[in-house]
Amino acid sequence: MAGIYLHIPFCRKRCHYCDFFKSTDLSQKARLLEGLKKELESRSLELTSEEINTIYLGGGTPSVLLVDELKSLLDTIFLNYKVSSEAEITMEANPDDLSQAVLSFIREIGFNRLSMGIQSFSEQDLKLMNRRHGVMQAIQSVKWAKTAGFRNISIDLIYGLPNQTLEEWERNVQVAVQLDVQHVSAYNLTYHEGTVFYDQLKKGILKELPDELSLQQFEILIRTLKDAGFEHYEISNFCKPGFYSKHNSSYWKNQKYLGVGPSAHSFDLVSRRWNVSSIGAYLDGIENSKPYSESEILTEQDRYNDYIITGLRTIWGVSEELIKSEFSAAYLDHFQKVSEKYLQSGKVIRTSEKVSLSPEGLFISDQIMADFMVVESC
Ligand code: SF4
Question: From residue 332, how far is each of 308, 322, 344 by CA, in Å?
Answer without folding.
Answer: 12, 9, 18
